Task: inverse folding
């Protein structure tokens, strides 16, 4: 569904992403892992068109989104749903208004139909009864669920998660894991999850991509990554400290 | 020496970059006005915030400006037995200069700061990114309603400020300067033409545009968390003040 080809992203003189090529296949969940600051979120932002890469191409169903106008990109983005790290709910709107927002912008549904869809999406993420709450009244986990309901509002073909478990306790994080697995079953959509939480990543992934110093150093099914010969992959999986940083 | 030149050069480049970015944002905002009807709810909301919300304090300001103006000029005019022209002086000063400029300042402080703080907070909490990935242009959704609301509401506020200022001036004129209300208004209407009031309102439209554009620009540029919101909000108000003064001179020359 999405093909990334020779993607390079430079910030000032620093190369954040260095010649990345991979694809996000239809109905597959791809988890991008790697240390904090390795460029995972930047990669996600490139794919959803929030930042333009320095070079390379990103093909979404054949259209190169790096070479099209913002207006054309907006049309393609209607097939995307994104759950941001902090959920990015609109603080001036209630939960139901947040979920209804993309529908009001892009669909000519009447109020009744919008209300039904909002109820359905909130039920999918187990947030029934929270329609009239403001984002400031929600806990971290509830915010993520509400953000997910909004991301699902337009029934996107592809959904992106940026550190979905950041700032959540292990039990709530487990709930979000379950929710992602439920979505895989119910909605059957292409997913890309950026995380440094290994347990979570391996639990939900069909395919794992590991980034290190801007490059892909391992890619494959979770079992293949576990058996990787790469020294750094093993160090990361076992959570071993960086010898150089200790001795340095 | 070389370091100073490099510093100066970098500042100059930054200045031209910022000017370009502001002009591009303004052009994109104006261009998105053709779809204004689709965003009418937001436009109405902004009009209420800018107009209705600002009016009470604007009226208070206008009333006291009118009184101070009559008090200061009246005192000087009395010395030369020229107090009969006080109505013209208060009316012309308010309509041509003080009404639009001081309302522009008031709107910059109240509305411009609120625009930057709101958009800046949205920027740092990824709400602007969320808009973009939902296929909603932040310029269309956030800038356009604020520009339209400011361009229409600031002149309307100025009309009220002028009116209440003239009334304040009349009170002082009658009680302190010794020029009766009738004489005050006769003199005022003899001197003040519709053209002059209109030119003042035209300036007010420009000032509204400046406040909205700078407020949105600084909001979209906000980085650095809560501290950044404070910094950019201050920058927004200061820059709006400066641009209002500069544009006031050039517009006055143009509309003289």
Result:
């Amino acid at each position: 569904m999405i093909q990334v080809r020779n993607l390079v992203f430079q910030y000032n003189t620093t190369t954040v992403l260095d010649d990345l090529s991979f694809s996000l296949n239809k109905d597959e969940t791809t988890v991008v892992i790697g240390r904090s600051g390795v460029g995972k979120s930047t990669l996600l932002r490139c794919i959803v068109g929030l930042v333009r890469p320095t070079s390379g191409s990103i093909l979404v169903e054949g259209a190169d989104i790096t070479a099209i106008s913002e207006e054309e990109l907006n049309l393609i983005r209607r097939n995307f749903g994104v759950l941001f790290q902090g959920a990015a709910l609109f603080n001036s709107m209630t939960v139901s208004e947040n979920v209804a927002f993309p529908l009001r912008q892009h669909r000519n549904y009447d109020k009744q139909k919008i209300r039904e869809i909002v109820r359905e999406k909130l039920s999918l993420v187990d947030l029934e009864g929270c329609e009239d709450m403001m984002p400031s009244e929600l806990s971290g986990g509830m915010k993520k669920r509400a953000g997910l309901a909004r991301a699902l509002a337009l029934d996107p073909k592809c959904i992106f998660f940026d550190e979905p478990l950041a700032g959540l306790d292990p039990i709530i994080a487990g709930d979000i894991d379950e929710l992602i697995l439920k979505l895989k079953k119910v909605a059957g959509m292409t997913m890309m999850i950026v995380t440094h939480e290994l347990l979570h990543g391996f639990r939900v992934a069909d395919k794992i991509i590991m980034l290190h110093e801007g490059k892909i150093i391992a890619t494959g099914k979770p079992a293949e990554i576990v058996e990787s010969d790469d020294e750094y992959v093993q160090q990361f999986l076992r959570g071993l400290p960086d010898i150089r940083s200790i001795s340095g | 020496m070389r370091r100073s030149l490099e510093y100066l050069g970098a500042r100059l480049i930054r200045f031209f970059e910022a000017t370009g970015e502001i002009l591009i944002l303004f052009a994109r905002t104006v261009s998105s006005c053709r779809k204004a009807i689709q965003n009418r709810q937001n436009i109405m909301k902004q009009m209420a915030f800018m107009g209705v919300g600002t009016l009470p304090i604007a009226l208070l300001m206008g009333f006291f400006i009118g009184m101070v103006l009559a008090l200061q000029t009246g005192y000087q005019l009395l010395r030369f037995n020229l107090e009969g022209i006080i109505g013209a002086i208060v009316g012309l000063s308010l309509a041509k200069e003080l009404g639009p400029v001081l309302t522009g300042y008031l709107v910059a402080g109240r509305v411009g700061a609120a625009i930057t703080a709101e958009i800046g907070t949205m920027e740092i909490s990824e709400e602007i990114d969320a808009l973009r990935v939902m296929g909603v242009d932040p310029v269309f959704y956030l800038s356009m309603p604020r520009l339209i609301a400011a361009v229409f509401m600031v002149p309307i506020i100025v009309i009220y400020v002028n009116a209440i200022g003239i009334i304040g001036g009349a009170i002082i004129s009658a009680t302190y300067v010794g020029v009766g209300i009738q004489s005050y208004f006769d003199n005022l209407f003899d001197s003040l033409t519709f053209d002059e009031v209109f030119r003042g309102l035209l300036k007010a439209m420009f000032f509204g545009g400046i406040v909205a554009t700078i407020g949105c620009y600084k909001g979209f540029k906000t980085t650095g968390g809560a501290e950044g919101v404070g910094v950019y909000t201050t920058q927004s108000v200061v820059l709006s003040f400066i641009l209002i003064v500069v544009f006031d001179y050039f517009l006055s020359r143009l509309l003289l």
